[in-house]
Each structure stands twice: as structure tokens, then as C-alpha cells.
Amino acid sequence: QVQLVESGGGLVQAGGSLRLSCAASGRTISSYVMGWFRQAPGKEREFVAAVSESGRSTQYVDSVKGRFTISRDNAKNTVYLQMNSLTPEDTAVYYCAVSVGESYKYWGQGTQVTISS
Asked: Which site among 32, 35, 65, 92 is 20 to 30 Å from 55 CA-CA?
């Protein structure tokens, strides 16, 4: 069992930046792919980014490429999402998750990100 706690969300103006953190406990996450997802009001949850176990490989949804950076610190059992050049379309609840096998099995409770225009 893995517990995930996201933090770092908030209200910022368009063009601003936020850094989200996802702290894991209960099990080391160094052996797992980690991902960030988001869900905007009235929309389905969507994949945002993922990082490999070592942190060397990353993947992003097209809409955030060049603006968001996912990273991890396995020594701290923590994953990060640096978000720059934010737009109102980035407003959503952001979740981190642990990939086990072919699916994301463990999820955090989410952190709200709101971007004002």
C-alpha cells in the first residue's frame, strides 16, 4: 500500500508558475513509474506527465510540452511537477499516481490549481 499526498497547488495569474509535490509513504516508489493527472470541472481526468523509475525518461501530453517538467527524488520518495507559463486552461485538480503493472493503482487526494486570466 502506498499513500500519496499532493501539495503546492493554489491560485496564480496567467503566465505564472507553480511547483507541485507528491510525497509518498508506506512503500518506496523508486521501482515505479509515477504520473501526474488532472481533472477540470465537467471534464474527464486526463494524463499530464509521467516519469520513469530512474527519472531519465519522461512523457507529456501535448498541451503541456515545453511548459511543464516532471521530476523525481527517489531519496525523498517524492515526485514533482514544475508548471510554467500557466493558462486558465490548466485550471484543474491535479493528482499524482503510482503505476503498477499496466495501470495506475494508487492515487493521491489531489491539489487544486486555479489560474486567473
From this structure: 92
Q: How far apart are CA 12 and CA 115, in angstroms?
A: 5
**Rounded to 5 degrees, what are φ and ψ at 79?**
-120, 145
Q: How far apart are CA 64 and CA 103, in angstroms?
A: 22
The H or E element containing residue 11 is: strand 10-13
60: number of Cβ within 10 Å: 17
CB 49 within 8 A of CB 58: yes
* Coil, helix or strand at residue 71: strand
Task: Report in angstroms the alpha-carbon separations of 93 from 3, 87, 117.
Answer: 18, 14, 18
Q: Is the pLDDT of residue 117 over 90?
A: yes
Q: How many C-beta neighbours within 10 Å does residue 100 have?
A: 13
What span, in angstroms and rounded, lies between the C-alpha atoms of 67 and 51? 16
3-state SS class at 66: coil
